[in-house]
Amino acid sequence: MNISPDEAEEALAAIQKVTDKTRRSIAGSGAYIFLIVTGIVWLVGFLSTQFLTGEIVAYIWIGISLLGTALSIPVGIRMGKRVRSPSFGPTAKRATIFWLLLAFYAVAVIAVAQPAEGKQVTMFVILFIMLGQLAMGLILSFSTTWWALPITALALTGYFLLPDFFYLWMGVLVGGGMIAFGLYIRLRW
Amino acid sequence: MPDLNETIHQPVRLKIMAALVALDSGNEVDFTYLRGLLEVTNGNLGAHLRKLEEAGYITVNKTFVDRKPRTYVSATPAGREVFREHVAALESILKRK
Q: Chain B closest CA to A132's CA: distance in Å?
């Protein structure tokens, strides 16, 4: 079989286009919903922490976190139906154990350090969640790894430079940023 | 120099193989999802999948999910190897330009 260099170039371009589209589609189709849902949870939760006081704040966090989890589960199931991995079962089991152990370590660290205020507890929790996200991304898929780094950087910036507006910062900039990025993936990617 | 593969070089089959090889090894993709990704019709995709399956380049797995029939497609190790060789052949032709 013989083809010209121009035909070879066209074929390689077609291959590259489909490869890129497949990777973007698989990485982006579920990610944008997780980003938007998490962003809404953080936006509502942190704004209520900034502006409200008392037990109502805890109830808001519990309520929106449960709602966010409930919304994310069908997305995960739908994604699992599109692309199946024979190794996903054992991997999912290991990932679940990892997150449970990480939660245990986070509670242990907070118990030992005994943070003096809510902002410190929040930063501990965010740092552990982002550490877990980085670890999962490095093990499972590089495409979901990088966004944990800017969120960590933004959280640390707010904590050290704007302590009085930390929760507002976290809600609007980080939560809002996640929503905006999720919408960007949905509309433009 | 690696040879071009006539089975794979057909435009739709080339796109099918490119999409399947882009997945991690062993992963399989839903037929409906693949059809949307490649923007082809049911019949067209089905016909080309049969050709690739006959050549041993892909595996078609018909199963039930939530009691609904679903078809999953994945590239075989042989299919991945042949596709790599085909791409290498294309690149070597391009170098002659």
A: 22
